[in-house]
Amino acid sequence: MSNQLRIGSSIYINYILLGMINLIIALHMGFLTEQLNTDAAAISALISAIGIGKLIALSFAGKLSDNLGRRPMLITACFLYVVFLVAIPFAPTYTIAFMFALLAGMGNSILDTSSYPALIEVFRKRSSSATVLVKAFMSVGSTILPLMITFFMARDMFYGYTFFIMAGIFLFNALHLMTLKFPEANVLEEEPKEENKQGKKPVKKLIFKEKPKFLREGITVIAIGFTSVGLFLIIQTWLATYAEEVVGLPEAQAINLLSIYSFGGFATVIILATLLDRLFRPITALIIYPLIAIAALTTLLFVESYTILIIIAFILGMATSGLFQLAVTLMAQFFPEKKGTSTAFVTLSSSIGFITLPYVTGLINRHIGVSYVFMFEIIIAVIAVILAAFISYRYRKVFDLEIRKPVMWRNP
């Protein structure tokens, strides 16, 4: 196996495990409430602690990824997860468990700000496809975990074995990463390749017609990161409730819509991974997918047929998955000299979305009804289209797609 594939495989294995970690506290709530002598609300706060730890680490993870390199940061993330996974089943008090949950959140930020840039640098010609596949592997992890838990519960085995198996895989992956050689971080394209008259190597340059500005292109892509989270998080949170309360479906059928939604998301990730960088650019998907979501959400508000709702759920899954990964790729294209830092900014906006949007939509549901939650979702989708249309215009200006040989902007 080539070094390139070994790096990619290690990163994707980490994201399979991350897909499991995102659910592991919630799915072990009963065991943890008994172990830590607390209630379900307190265990839910452990999940929030992971989000807090993620926000704390975003203040430095991106810069460290750019300065120290991708490999040491990936290895650090693996070891942080090993500590978290081994410690939680033995945590004697809630306070100690909370501290280790913060550590897991920090590991999440370090993993994101090193993995996405690494994939972009390792798979330069298929960077969009490489980053979108992260979503697919996380879905694999979220599918495997319930099966593992069921296996151990059926045999009346200690719940911590699930944690230990994952910790063992993280440890093995960390050791494997130590043997790999990563590309140099943030290497910019060079032009020309020949030596100059003085026999010196050419100065590195960015292939831009005009220099991107963080306050213009950067802020726009960060906002897209926020809307991309809103598009799938709100549907994932409220679709079953809407189907029960407004359409009147039984609970089992309403929950089944979420399975259909997830399947649609997995399907679109595979499609994007296959076609991106070959038939269309990430920016095209960032415009078309929210438009499809607007049409599907509008239809959702006017239908009551279960069959049609299944189709809508599948379409919504296809139209709202993988957009965050595309935003990360786009940010790295605009600011390739600081991929880790730019990834941190997009991840920060998504984290804010995860914290604020459930609260806002909860208030909307409480005071005016769940139907208005999806009207709010349509507004987010419209904003996403406007942002994507603007960044598409700027993309053409910055990269000068109409000219075969772009004018060079010299990197100072």
From TrEMBL:
UniProt KW Membrane keyword: yes
Coiled-coil residue spans: none
Bilayer disposition of the protein: Multi-pass membrane protein
Main localisation: membrane
TM annotation in the entry: 12-31, 43-61, 73-91, 97-120, 132-152, 158-178, 214-235, 255-276, 283-302, 308-332, 344-364, 370-395
PROSITE patterns documented for this protein: MFS (PS50850), SUGAR_TRANSPORT_1 (PS00216)
Residue ranges occupied by any Major facilitator superfamily (MFS) profile domain in the UniProt entry: 7-396
Pfam families linked: MFS_1
Localisation per UniProt entry: Cell membrane
Keyword Heme among record annotations: no
Keywords recorded for this protein, A-Z: Membrane, Transmembrane, Transmembrane helix, Transport
Family as reported in the entry's similarity comment: Belongs to the major facilitator superfamily.
Identification of the protein by name: MFS family permease
Organism in which the protein naturally occurs: Jeotgalicoccus aerolatus
